[in-house]
Design goal:
Keywords: Secreted, Signal. It is elongated and about 55 Å long. The longest helix has 13 residues. It starts with a helix and ends in a 10-residue tail after the last strand. It is of the alpha+beta class. It has a single domain, classed as Ribbon (Cystine Knot Cytokines, subunit B), CATH 2.10.90.10.
């Protein structure tokens, strides 16, 4: 039962409507994250295609950067070499968003 729920969750992430991951101003692609000792064994994780600037946003007054958006999901991890599993939390990137760049603050010494 748990395995089926986790597999369905992963499928919902990559089956986003109308290929949103390509149309976003902070586009991303999915990379397979494989672990044979985890259920689900395959998780699709988002990787931003542009690390520092957002595409298609040229008339913005402030500097924008592409930031990965992450969530924590439950997974089943195999314990040692036996057939028992434990529920663990794993953080995965599910998308990328456009955000204003972090400000660099300098301390002036006089």
């Amino acid at each position: 039962l748990c395995s089926g729920i986790l597999d369905q969750f992963d499928f919902q992430i990559i089956d986003m409507p109308d290929r949103l991951y390509e149309r976003s101003v902070a586009p991303w692609n999915y990379v397979v994250k494989m672990d044979v000792n985890r259920i689900p064994q395959v998780i699709h994780e988002a990787h931003c295609t542009s690390s520092h600037n957002c595409e298609k946003v040229k008339d913005s007054a402030s500097s924008l950067e592409s930031i990965p958006l992450s969530i924590t999901i439950p997974v089943l991890k195999k314990k040692d070499k036996c057939a028992s599993y434990s529920v663990e939390q794993e953080t995965i990137r599910i998308a990328c968003i456009c955000a204003t760049a972090r400000q660099q603050y300098h301390i002036c010494q006089g």
